[in-house]
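Re: that chain you flagged

S.,

Sorry for the slow reply, it's been a week of failed gels. I finally had a moment to sit down with the sequence you sent. For the record, here it is as I used it:
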Amino acid sequence: MSGQDPWPSALPPALSRSELALFQHLVEAEAGIHLSSAKSALVANRLSRRMRELGLTSFAAYHAFVTARGNEAEKVRMLDSLCTHETSFFREPRHFELLRDHIFPEWSAQAAQGRRPRSIRVWSAGCSTGEEPYSLAMELLEAFPKGSGWNLEVVATDLSTWAVKRAEEGLWSLERARTIPQVLLRKYMLKGVRTQEGLMTAGPELRQFMRFARANLHAPATWPMGPFDVIFCRNVLIYFGAEARARVIQGLLSRLPETGYFFLGHAESLIGITAAARSVSANVYTPRPGPPLPSRE
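Prediction finished late last night. Pasting the structure tokens below so you have them in one place:
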């Protein structure tokens, strides 16, 4: 192509309804994510930068490029660009209180009685840039410190390769520290110096039992091997269509034993989706029958 900018205007080309429909079908087929018509501006803005890099002048041309045979890497890149990465440390604090005050003590007592092994596996499904899995790791170490005889593992996955890389790096702006309790911040996070001034990084105690990978919740073959004792899949399934959401939930529940716990986001519920799980607290479920856990209120 010539050296001329294919977009003489600073604005990206318009995204037509038919072009939006192409990406709606593609994204739902590949990732289970439903893009409503209200997302038209978001889709246009997030894809237009890559289109400019490629010298493509229409969204239809970019769709053809993404779906061309052998272009899987570009498809992954496209999905990355459309992912939402809103997150924070200890988001929805009641979930961490439930782990700290009820679930972890219950497991400790069971292990002392020889009723469960001294091992815990946690899956953060939709880990974004890592704040959630590192929050889980801090809570685990507080309850089951090094030398206590417990084997711990936190598996963190996301659809976005960019997000998984950021999470594995374990490096954030100091502004992100505001939601971390001070005692945990001082104990498990390191303040950056010199070239990393203004940043913080996860300490080695956290990193030693964490594992990161890309996984597509719409493609169970990419999921980590179960079973898990805890699965966090919060504020992810709200972006899925109803059928895809139900399939993913059934699959995630199948990765839990009867004593496991499944955590959803504050706006999510299993009501009307499955009868295979019982609510034990707000947005928290278990495959095991039994009464709700005690309320703190």
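What I noticed first: The chain has a mean pLDDT of 91.

Talk soon,
D.
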